[in-house]
Structure to design on (374 residues):
Protein backbone atom coordinates (compact mmCIF):
# COMPACT_ATOMS: atom_id res chain seq x y z
CA UNK A 1 0.00 0.00 0.00
CA UNK A 2 1.17 3.49 -0.84
CA UNK A 3 2.08 5.35 2.36
CA UNK A 4 -0.10 8.31 3.17
CA UNK A 5 1.42 11.53 1.90
CA UNK A 6 -0.05 14.92 2.45
CA UNK A 7 1.11 17.13 -0.44
CA UNK A 8 2.56 20.56 0.30
CA UNK A 9 2.56 22.16 -3.11
CA UNK A 10 1.73 25.67 -1.83
CA UNK A 11 4.80 25.69 0.35
CA UNK A 12 6.94 24.33 -2.49
CA UNK A 13 5.62 26.99 -4.86
CA UNK A 14 6.36 29.77 -2.41
CA UNK A 15 9.94 28.60 -2.04
CA UNK A 16 10.40 28.27 -5.79
CA UNK A 17 9.06 31.81 -6.26
CA UNK A 18 11.95 33.11 -4.20
CA UNK A 19 14.44 31.64 -6.67
CA UNK A 20 14.78 34.69 -8.82
CA UNK A 21 17.74 36.94 -9.49
CA UNK A 22 15.52 39.89 -8.58
CA UNK A 23 17.54 41.77 -5.96
CA UNK A 24 14.48 42.70 -3.92
CA UNK A 25 12.24 39.65 -4.04
CA UNK A 26 14.81 36.99 -4.68
CA UNK A 27 16.65 35.05 -2.03
CA UNK A 28 19.91 34.99 -3.94
CA UNK A 29 21.94 34.50 -0.82
CA UNK A 30 20.07 31.23 -0.41
CA UNK A 31 17.53 29.89 2.02
CA UNK A 32 18.31 28.31 5.35
CA UNK A 33 15.38 26.43 6.79
CA UNK A 34 15.26 24.73 10.17
CA UNK A 35 12.74 22.40 11.79
CA UNK A 36 13.10 19.63 14.37
CA UNK A 37 13.84 16.04 13.36
CA UNK A 38 11.12 13.79 12.00
CA UNK A 39 8.77 16.65 11.13
CA UNK A 40 8.87 16.07 7.37
CA UNK A 41 11.71 18.13 5.90
CA UNK A 42 13.33 15.45 3.75
CA UNK A 43 9.96 14.16 2.60
CA UNK A 44 9.03 17.66 1.53
CA UNK A 45 12.29 18.14 -0.39
CA UNK A 46 11.85 14.89 -2.27
CA UNK A 47 8.12 14.76 -2.83
CA UNK A 48 7.13 18.41 -3.13
CA UNK A 49 10.08 20.73 -3.66
CA UNK A 50 12.08 18.78 -6.27
CA UNK A 51 9.01 18.31 -8.54
CA UNK A 52 8.08 21.99 -8.16
CA UNK A 53 11.62 23.02 -9.12
CA UNK A 54 11.43 20.84 -12.25
CA UNK A 55 8.01 22.25 -13.05
CA UNK A 56 9.49 25.75 -12.88
CA UNK A 57 12.07 24.81 -15.53
CA UNK A 58 15.00 24.50 -13.16
CA UNK A 59 17.11 21.49 -12.27
CA UNK A 60 17.04 20.17 -8.68
CA UNK A 61 19.92 18.35 -7.03
CA UNK A 62 19.30 17.10 -3.50
CA UNK A 63 22.23 16.15 -1.31
CA UNK A 64 21.71 14.70 2.16
CA UNK A 65 24.73 15.20 4.40
CA UNK A 66 23.34 12.60 6.79
CA UNK A 67 23.13 9.99 4.10
CA UNK A 68 26.29 8.46 5.50
CA UNK A 69 27.56 10.18 8.59
CA UNK A 70 30.89 8.38 8.46
CA UNK A 71 31.70 10.25 5.25
CA UNK A 72 32.96 13.77 5.01
CA UNK A 73 30.39 16.21 3.57
CA UNK A 74 32.83 17.15 0.80
CA UNK A 75 33.00 13.51 -0.25
CA UNK A 76 29.20 13.23 -0.32
CA UNK A 77 28.93 16.42 -2.38
CA UNK A 78 31.57 15.28 -4.89
CA UNK A 79 29.94 11.92 -5.35
CA UNK A 80 26.56 13.45 -5.96
CA UNK A 81 28.05 15.85 -8.52
CA UNK A 82 29.94 13.00 -10.18
CA UNK A 83 26.78 10.92 -10.39
CA UNK A 84 24.76 13.75 -11.88
CA UNK A 85 27.39 14.49 -14.52
CA UNK A 86 27.66 10.82 -15.36
CA UNK A 87 23.93 10.61 -16.02
CA UNK A 88 23.95 13.81 -18.06
CA UNK A 89 26.97 12.86 -20.14
CA UNK A 90 26.90 14.43 -23.54
CA UNK A 91 23.65 16.26 -22.94
CA UNK A 92 25.12 19.72 -23.51
CA UNK A 93 23.60 21.54 -26.43
CA UNK A 94 20.66 19.15 -26.67
CA UNK A 95 17.20 20.02 -25.54
CA UNK A 96 16.58 17.88 -22.50
CA UNK A 97 13.05 16.89 -21.79
CA UNK A 98 11.67 17.43 -18.34
CA UNK A 99 11.01 13.73 -17.91
CA UNK A 100 14.68 13.01 -18.57
CA UNK A 101 15.74 15.62 -16.04
CA UNK A 102 13.30 14.17 -13.54
CA UNK A 103 14.89 10.81 -14.03
CA UNK A 104 18.43 12.11 -13.53
CA UNK A 105 17.35 14.03 -10.46
CA UNK A 106 15.60 10.97 -9.01
CA UNK A 107 18.78 8.87 -9.21
CA UNK A 108 20.01 11.02 -6.36
CA UNK A 109 17.32 9.52 -4.13
CA UNK A 110 17.69 5.93 -5.11
CA UNK A 111 21.38 5.19 -5.51
CA UNK A 112 23.56 5.03 -2.41
CA UNK A 113 26.63 7.26 -2.53
CA UNK A 114 29.00 4.44 -1.63
CA UNK A 115 28.72 3.08 -5.18
CA UNK A 116 29.52 6.39 -6.85
CA UNK A 117 32.74 7.90 -8.12
CA UNK A 118 33.56 11.27 -6.59
CA UNK A 119 33.88 14.12 -9.07
CA UNK A 120 37.59 14.88 -9.44
CA UNK A 121 37.39 18.62 -10.15
CA UNK A 122 36.39 21.38 -7.78
CA UNK A 123 32.82 21.75 -6.54
CA UNK A 124 32.19 25.10 -8.32
CA UNK A 125 33.53 23.65 -11.56
CA UNK A 126 31.30 20.60 -11.21
CA UNK A 127 28.19 22.69 -10.64
CA UNK A 128 29.14 24.93 -13.55
CA UNK A 129 29.39 21.88 -15.77
CA UNK A 130 26.03 20.56 -14.65
CA UNK A 131 24.50 23.96 -15.44
CA UNK A 132 26.01 23.82 -18.93
CA UNK A 133 24.73 20.27 -19.52
CA UNK A 134 21.16 21.00 -18.50
CA UNK A 135 21.11 24.61 -19.80
CA UNK A 136 18.95 25.62 -16.87
CA UNK A 137 19.27 27.11 -13.46
CA UNK A 138 20.31 24.68 -10.78
CA UNK A 139 18.67 24.44 -7.40
CA UNK A 140 21.01 22.68 -5.03
CA UNK A 141 19.28 21.49 -1.89
CA UNK A 142 21.53 20.48 0.97
CA UNK A 143 19.65 18.48 3.57
CA UNK A 144 21.02 18.39 7.13
CA UNK A 145 23.44 21.13 6.11
CA UNK A 146 24.59 21.68 9.70
CA UNK A 147 26.57 18.46 9.33
CA UNK A 148 29.12 20.60 7.47
CA UNK A 149 30.23 21.93 10.86
CA UNK A 150 31.79 18.61 11.82
CA UNK A 151 34.91 18.95 9.72
CA UNK A 152 37.12 21.36 7.86
CA UNK A 153 36.13 19.49 4.71
CA UNK A 154 32.51 20.23 5.50
CA UNK A 155 33.10 23.92 6.01
CA UNK A 156 35.25 24.11 2.89
CA UNK A 157 32.36 22.55 1.00
CA UNK A 158 30.10 25.36 2.20
CA UNK A 159 32.63 27.97 1.11
CA UNK A 160 32.90 26.24 -2.25
CA UNK A 161 29.12 26.38 -2.66
CA UNK A 162 29.13 30.05 -1.84
CA UNK A 163 31.91 30.65 -4.37
CA UNK A 164 29.99 28.70 -7.01
CA UNK A 165 26.83 30.65 -6.29
CA UNK A 166 28.61 34.00 -6.54
CA UNK A 167 30.40 33.05 -9.75
CA UNK A 168 27.29 31.75 -11.46
CA UNK A 169 24.95 34.51 -10.30
CA UNK A 170 27.19 37.48 -10.84
CA UNK A 171 28.08 36.86 -14.46
CA UNK A 172 25.96 38.32 -17.24
CA UNK A 173 24.45 35.15 -18.59
CA UNK A 174 24.36 31.41 -18.13
CA UNK A 175 22.58 29.21 -15.63
CA UNK A 176 22.14 30.49 -12.09
CA UNK A 177 22.68 28.58 -8.89
CA UNK A 178 20.24 28.68 -5.99
CA UNK A 179 21.03 27.12 -2.67
CA UNK A 180 18.52 25.75 -0.21
CA UNK A 181 19.88 24.46 3.07
CA UNK A 182 17.76 22.59 5.53
CA UNK A 183 18.62 21.34 8.97
CA UNK A 184 17.18 19.82 12.07
CA UNK A 185 19.19 21.97 14.42
CA UNK A 186 18.48 25.66 14.36
CA UNK A 187 21.48 26.89 16.32
CA UNK A 188 23.87 24.72 14.31
CA UNK A 189 22.42 25.89 11.02
CA UNK A 190 22.79 29.45 12.29
CA UNK A 191 26.54 28.93 12.55
CA UNK A 192 26.60 28.92 8.73
CA UNK A 193 25.14 32.41 8.50
CA UNK A 194 26.25 34.20 11.67
CA UNK A 195 29.58 35.85 12.21
CA UNK A 196 31.75 37.50 9.62
CA UNK A 197 33.67 34.29 9.00
CA UNK A 198 30.56 32.21 8.32
CA UNK A 199 30.21 30.93 4.74
CA UNK A 200 26.79 32.50 4.25
CA UNK A 201 27.35 35.57 6.34
CA UNK A 202 24.39 37.91 6.02
CA UNK A 203 21.85 35.16 5.45
CA UNK A 204 19.31 34.17 8.06
CA UNK A 205 17.78 30.97 9.32
CA UNK A 206 14.03 30.69 8.92
CA UNK A 207 11.67 28.22 10.53
CA UNK A 208 10.57 25.57 8.13
CA UNK A 209 6.83 25.24 8.79
CA UNK A 210 5.73 22.00 10.38
CA UNK A 211 2.61 20.21 9.16
CA UNK A 212 -0.59 21.65 10.55
CA UNK A 213 -4.32 21.44 10.89
CA UNK A 214 -4.98 20.52 7.26
CA UNK A 215 -2.67 17.55 7.49
CA UNK A 216 -4.48 16.38 10.63
CA UNK A 217 -7.89 16.92 9.06
CA UNK A 218 -7.02 14.99 5.91
CA UNK A 219 -5.60 12.11 7.88
CA UNK A 220 -8.40 11.73 10.42
CA UNK A 221 -11.00 12.03 7.67
CA UNK A 222 -9.36 9.29 5.64
CA UNK A 223 -8.85 7.01 8.59
CA UNK A 224 -12.32 7.80 9.91
CA UNK A 225 -13.98 6.86 6.64
CA UNK A 226 -11.98 3.64 6.31
CA UNK A 227 -12.51 2.48 9.89
CA UNK A 228 -15.89 3.98 10.51
CA UNK A 229 -14.79 6.01 13.51
CA UNK A 230 -15.18 9.68 14.36
CA UNK A 231 -12.37 11.81 15.72
CA UNK A 232 -12.82 15.53 16.18
CA UNK A 233 -10.41 17.94 14.57
CA UNK A 234 -9.70 19.52 17.97
CA UNK A 235 -8.64 16.19 19.42
CA UNK A 236 -6.51 15.49 16.36
CA UNK A 237 -4.77 18.86 16.52
CA UNK A 238 -4.16 18.57 20.26
CA UNK A 239 -2.67 15.09 19.83
CA UNK A 240 -0.46 16.25 16.95
CA UNK A 241 0.77 19.14 19.06
CA UNK A 242 1.53 16.83 22.00
CA UNK A 243 3.64 14.76 19.60
CA UNK A 244 5.57 17.81 18.40
CA UNK A 245 4.14 17.69 14.88
CA UNK A 246 5.73 14.38 13.99
CA UNK A 247 3.62 12.55 11.42
CA UNK A 248 4.94 9.09 12.27
CA UNK A 249 4.27 9.37 15.98
CA UNK A 250 0.84 10.81 15.24
CA UNK A 251 -0.05 8.01 12.84
CA UNK A 252 1.09 5.44 15.36
CA UNK A 253 -1.08 6.99 18.09
CA UNK A 254 -4.04 7.04 15.71
CA UNK A 255 -3.56 3.45 14.63
CA UNK A 256 -3.02 2.07 18.13
CA UNK A 257 -5.95 3.96 19.60
CA UNK A 258 -8.41 2.89 16.93
CA UNK A 259 -7.25 -0.70 17.12
CA UNK A 260 -7.43 -0.95 20.88
CA UNK A 261 -10.72 0.91 21.15
CA UNK A 262 -12.21 -1.58 18.72
CA UNK A 263 -10.98 -4.47 20.88
CA UNK A 264 -12.07 -3.06 24.20
CA UNK A 265 -15.27 -1.37 23.09
CA UNK A 266 -14.17 1.84 24.87
CA UNK A 267 -14.63 5.22 23.21
CA UNK A 268 -11.66 6.60 21.28
CA UNK A 269 -9.44 8.95 23.26
CA UNK A 270 -6.72 10.21 20.95
CA UNK A 271 -5.43 12.89 23.31
CA UNK A 272 -4.68 10.39 26.05
CA UNK A 273 -3.09 8.04 23.56
CA UNK A 274 -0.80 10.81 22.30
CA UNK A 275 0.26 11.49 25.86
CA UNK A 276 1.06 7.80 26.30
CA UNK A 277 3.18 7.78 23.15
CA UNK A 278 4.98 10.89 24.36
CA UNK A 279 5.50 9.28 27.75
CA UNK A 280 7.28 6.39 26.08
CA UNK A 281 9.58 8.77 24.22
CA UNK A 282 10.27 10.72 27.38
CA UNK A 283 10.95 7.53 29.28
CA UNK A 284 13.95 6.87 27.03
CA UNK A 285 15.28 10.36 27.56
CA UNK A 286 14.78 10.08 31.33
CA UNK A 287 16.80 6.89 31.32
CA UNK A 288 19.60 8.76 29.63
CA UNK A 289 19.46 11.49 32.29
CA UNK A 290 19.52 8.87 35.03
CA UNK A 291 22.85 7.69 33.67
CA UNK A 292 24.45 11.08 34.38
CA UNK A 293 26.26 12.10 37.55
CA UNK A 294 24.73 14.79 39.77
CA UNK A 295 27.09 17.47 38.48
CA UNK A 296 26.62 16.49 34.84
CA UNK A 297 22.86 16.63 35.18
CA UNK A 298 22.97 19.92 37.07
CA UNK A 299 25.13 21.45 34.34
CA UNK A 300 22.83 20.24 31.61
CA UNK A 301 19.84 21.70 33.44
CA UNK A 302 21.60 24.99 34.02
CA UNK A 303 22.39 25.14 30.29
CA UNK A 304 18.80 24.35 29.34
CA UNK A 305 17.62 27.12 31.67
CA UNK A 306 19.97 29.83 30.46
CA UNK A 307 20.36 29.03 26.75
CA UNK A 308 22.78 31.27 24.89
CA UNK A 309 24.00 33.11 27.95
CA UNK A 310 25.31 29.96 29.63
CA UNK A 311 28.81 30.22 30.95
CA UNK A 312 29.82 27.07 32.81
CA UNK A 313 32.82 28.45 34.66
CA UNK A 314 31.27 31.64 35.99
CA UNK A 315 31.18 31.78 39.79
CA UNK A 316 27.40 32.08 39.71
CA UNK A 317 27.08 28.92 37.62
CA UNK A 318 29.42 26.96 39.87
CA UNK A 319 27.32 27.93 42.85
CA UNK A 320 24.08 27.07 41.13
CA UNK A 321 25.39 23.73 39.90
CA UNK A 322 26.60 22.80 43.40
CA UNK A 323 23.17 23.63 44.73
CA UNK A 324 21.30 21.66 42.07
CA UNK A 325 23.61 18.69 42.51
CA UNK A 326 23.32 18.90 46.28
CA UNK A 327 27.07 19.07 46.89
CA UNK A 328 29.11 21.56 48.86
CA UNK A 329 31.33 22.85 46.09
CA UNK A 330 32.13 22.22 42.44
CA UNK A 331 35.57 22.93 41.01
CA UNK A 332 36.28 24.27 37.53
CA UNK A 333 38.07 21.10 36.58
CA UNK A 334 35.08 19.00 37.65
CA UNK A 335 32.89 21.19 35.45
CA UNK A 336 35.30 20.85 32.56
CA UNK A 337 35.25 17.09 32.87
CA UNK A 338 31.47 16.96 33.16
CA UNK A 339 31.02 19.18 30.09
CA UNK A 340 33.25 16.82 28.13
CA UNK A 341 31.04 13.87 29.07
CA UNK A 342 27.92 15.79 28.03
CA UNK A 343 29.52 16.58 24.67
CA UNK A 344 30.56 12.92 24.22
CA UNK A 345 26.96 11.85 24.86
CA UNK A 346 25.76 14.34 22.22
CA UNK A 347 23.63 16.09 24.79
CA UNK A 348 25.68 19.26 24.43
CA UNK A 349 27.73 20.66 21.58
CA UNK A 350 30.34 23.37 21.36
CA UNK A 351 29.82 26.06 18.73
CA UNK A 352 33.16 27.58 19.66
CA UNK A 353 35.68 27.52 22.45
CA UNK A 354 33.95 28.30 25.73
CA UNK A 355 30.52 28.34 24.09
CA UNK A 356 28.01 25.59 24.69
CA UNK A 357 24.57 24.76 23.40
CA UNK A 358 22.07 21.96 23.86
CA UNK A 359 22.58 19.32 21.19
CA UNK A 360 19.68 16.98 21.92
CA UNK A 361 16.64 19.08 21.03
CA UNK A 362 14.19 16.45 22.31
CA UNK A 363 15.80 16.67 25.71
CA UNK A 364 15.41 20.43 25.71
CA UNK A 365 11.80 20.15 24.61
CA UNK A 366 11.04 17.67 27.37
CA UNK A 367 12.77 19.77 29.99
CA UNK A 368 10.95 22.97 29.08
CA UNK A 369 7.55 21.29 28.83
CA UNK A 370 7.91 19.56 32.17
CA UNK A 371 9.11 22.76 33.76
CA UNK A 372 6.16 24.69 32.38
CA UNK A 373 3.73 21.91 33.19
CA UNK A 374 2.73 21.34 29.58
N1 LIG B 1 3.62 15.41 4.03
C1 LIG B 1 3.65 14.24 4.69
N2 LIG B 1 2.58 13.40 4.68
C2 LIG B 1 2.63 12.23 5.34
N3 LIG B 1 3.67 11.78 6.05
C3 LIG B 1 4.76 12.56 6.10
C4 LIG B 1 4.81 13.83 5.44
N4 LIG B 1 6.02 14.38 5.67
C5 LIG B 1 6.68 13.51 6.45
N5 LIG B 1 5.96 12.41 6.71
C6 LIG B 1 6.41 11.24 7.48
O1 LIG B 1 7.09 11.67 8.65
C7 LIG B 1 8.29 10.93 8.86
C8 LIG B 1 9.47 11.86 9.01
O2 LIG B 1 9.66 12.58 7.80
P1 LIG B 1 11.08 13.07 7.31
O3 LIG B 1 10.85 13.77 6.02
O4 LIG B 1 12.06 11.98 7.33
O5 LIG B 1 11.45 14.13 8.45
P2 LIG B 1 12.78 14.99 8.65
O6 LIG B 1 13.53 15.02 7.36
O7 LIG B 1 12.28 16.34 9.09
O8 LIG B 1 13.53 14.31 9.76
C9 LIG B 1 8.40 9.97 7.68
O9 LIG B 1 8.00 8.71 8.12
C10 LIG B 1 7.44 10.50 6.66
O10 LIG B 1 6.84 9.46 5.93
MG1 LIG C 1 15.53 14.40 7.10
Amino acid sequence: MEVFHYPRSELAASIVRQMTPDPIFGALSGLHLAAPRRTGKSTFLRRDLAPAVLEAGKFPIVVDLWEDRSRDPSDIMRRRIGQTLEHLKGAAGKVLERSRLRQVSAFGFSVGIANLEPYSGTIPEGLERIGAEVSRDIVLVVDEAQQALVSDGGMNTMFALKAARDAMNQRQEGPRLFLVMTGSHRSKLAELVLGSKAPFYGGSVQDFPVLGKDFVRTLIEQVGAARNVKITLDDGVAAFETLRYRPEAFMKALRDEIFEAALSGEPINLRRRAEDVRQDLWGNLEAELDGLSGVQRALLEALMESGDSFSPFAAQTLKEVAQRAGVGEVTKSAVQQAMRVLVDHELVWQPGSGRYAVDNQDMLDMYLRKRDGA
Observations:
- The mean pLDDT is 92.
